[in-house]
Design brief:
Blueprint: E1 5-16, E2 19-30, E3 34-38, H1 45-52, E4 60-65, E5 68-69, H2 74-78, E6 81-84, H3 96-106, H4 111-124, H5 140-151, E7 158-162, H6 170-185, E8 189-193, H7 197-203, E9 206-211, E10 214-219, H8 221-228, E11 231-237, H9 243-254, E12 259-261, E13 264-269, H10 272-284, E14 289-295, H11 299-307
Parallel strand pairs: 3-8, 3-9, 6-7, 7-8
Antiparallel strand pairs: 1-2, 1-4, 4-5, 9-10, 11-13, 11-14, 12-13
Subcellular location: Cell membrane
Organism: Companilactobacillus nuruki
Domain ABC transporter: 7-237
């Protein structure tokens, strides 16, 4: 990843009738990074993606892709990227090889070049053994790999992946993650929208969260988790008579109301210093504990904190 800018979104807005689907959004995507876009249903993700990929005209603001304005230089902008939705417009009655050949020719490749590029992509996406099968016989994972292969025929520098692993089983999803990481190693920039927060956490260098059309937060997954999520401390108190005393100490030091389940105390906290002080006070009070577990906040926690109940 370098500091060159692949995408620059500047004060972008889109209004439909009297409703603002995207409201004054600004961010940049660096070359060579995986940039994740997250948001609840109806948050404006699809509208934002359609504007950046030149499919929808903005009401206000500008977008440049590798320096090309999407309105003034739309053809040049489009030539730099590929888009993979949940399903590409393939012919279900044709084979994977035939579909790749057709899309290659549509992209201006000669017959010889189309055949060479098709063979490259079939090998890269482990579809060689299924090259002559009808698409109707493909599993969900095979179909999704073909969709991605089609979007990469022209070797675009920027790839938009719109929920690329929706509906896939965990094993196939993991294979797709490896493919996406491989694309970045080869020099691609990835713009990823996903409904799986774990996917964004595992793949994205940075994540933008939007809700009600507004950009709520942007940063690395770790930054979002630690800025907006809370860690959880769980421990068992060995002496039943000390449980409530231990809970009071932790409530004071961690500034959070503990939950007591049998002889286990569970309490949220924002930073590690609070937890250390709380445990130190338990030791000073001669309260013996066991089964200490500290669980870091997840991206799910951060997402919920950022979006639930926001107006």
């Amino acid at each position: 990843m370098n500091d060159n800018i692949a995408i620059k979104v500047d004060h972008l807005s889109k209004t439909f009738t009297n409703q603002k689907a995207v409201d004054n959004v600004s961010f940049t995507v660096k070359e060579g990074e995986i940039f994740g876009l997250l948001g609840p249903n109806g948050a404006g993700k699809t509208t934002l993606l359609r504007m950046i990929t030149t499919l929808l005209k903005p009401t206000d603001g500008t977008v440049t892709v590798f320096g090309h304005d999407i309105e003034k230089d739309d053809k040049l902008a489009r030539s730099t990227f590929g888009v993979t939705g949940q399903y590409a417009s393939v012919d279900e009655d044709l084979s994977a090889k035939e579909n790749l050949m057709i899309f290659s020719r549509l992209n201006g490749f000669s017959k010889k070049s189309s055949l060479a590029r098709t063979d490259e992509l079939l090998k890269e996406f482990s579809l060689e053994n299924s090259a002559d099968k009808s698409i109707k016989e493909f599993s969900g994972g095979m179909r999704r790999r073909l969709d991605l292969a089609i979007s990469l025929i022209t070797r675009p520098a920027l790839i938009f992946l719109d929920e690329p692993t929706t509906g896939l089983d965990p094993r196939t999803r993991s294979q797709m993650w490896d493919t996406i990481r491989s694309l970045v190693k080869q020099g691609s920039t990835i713009f990823l929208t996903t409904q799986y927060l774990e996917e964004a956490d595992k793949l994205a260098n940075r994540v933008a969260v939007i809700d009600h059309g507004k950009l709520i937060k942007i940063g690395t997954p770790d930054q979002l988790k630690h800025d907006t999520g809370e860690s959880t401390l769980s421990l068992k108190v060995l002496d039943d008579n000390s449980i409530h005393q231990a809970a009071e100490i932790l409530q004071i030091e961690l500034n959070s109301k503990p939950q007591i389940i049998n002889n286990t105390i569970i309490v949220k906290f924002k930073n590690s210093e609070q937890a250390i002080k709380g445990l130190f006070q338990l030791k000073n009070s001669k309260i013996n504990i066991s089964d200490l577990i500290i669980q870091e906040p997840s991206l799910d926690d951060a997402f919920m904190a950022l979006t639930v109940g926001k107006n």
